[in-house]
Amino acid sequence: MFNRSIKRQENALNTWVITGANGNLGKRMISELSNEEGSLVRAIVRSQSAATTIQELPLSAQQRSRLDVHICDYTDREALSEAFKGYSNLVHLVGILKETAHSTYLDAHERSCEAVSDAARDANVSYMVYLSIVGSHSESHNRCLASKGNAEQIVINKGVDSCVLRVPMVLGEQDYASTALYYRAIKPLSLAFRASSLEQPIYAGDVLKAIRSVCRNQVRGTFDLAGPEVLTREALVQKAAGILGRSTRVISLPIWLGSLIARFLEVVMSNPPITSAMLGVLDHDDDLDSLKAIERIGLQSLTPLERMLELVFQVIPGALIKKED
Questions:
Q1: CA separation (Å) from 275 to 205, 253, 285, 317?
Q2: What is the pLDDT of residue 324?
Q3: All domains of the chain, ordered by start, with CATH?
Q4: What is the pTM of this model?
């Protein structure tokens, strides 16, 4: 009788609902969780096109039997509450760097966290994790970081046991950041705004380990979780080039020039490729001591930067990783 009770508890802890599941981290999490016997995963997305990207994941028949894809607006509390019922762990991955007329920081961050947190409480979800950005704070002068900071407070104060994980640049296989770094690294000449800014990239696989660990251990609070190495943006590009057996020269452009270009594009374009707020987030200096966070979260170690770069580059067609003699 006691063993059956433990088994039911274990099964309950292996039920997952993921909002914003069509992003790189969400899809990776789906693949990992659905590969485990006894797991149940519900992927919440906002549109049919997003649902299609998940349905096209290369999953086995067993994995698909454990996966359910649900279309729902992230600000619809009632619909979210229905979608969350029966699931124990909620992972909220919704967020944007660039605001547009159709996708505002207020909707993507504060309003979505308000609705998701309320719905989690209504549906008796046991635990919630919110993925945020290093540098987020409600008093920040940057609109994106201030919005994220407000969203964090909503999650923490809503009553559901929860954890906020703030991360810097995340590098994962086949994601935008890794691909962009690759193409910068293979060029003989690379341009960067304020190339002296500090980066502390973390491996996508480590972020997922952190999410699963805080859920398993029911860790509450807000943690800054960054990679094991701090280096300038210039040094990161050059290190990536070295991994690929290349060399590149990085030319640093003043950040004021980038801000001027961003403001000009915001005036002349309805959907500019970069905005002032987005540039401000990308220009943030990341220099964190994550040792206490790692210990509290329950991680043993983080993937070294060199290994991280090898992992994300080796899946890019045509990429050649330089092997040490």
A1: 29, 17, 18, 31
A2: 60
A3: 2-167 (3.40.50.720), 171-201+229-286+303-325 (3.90.25)
A4: 0.92
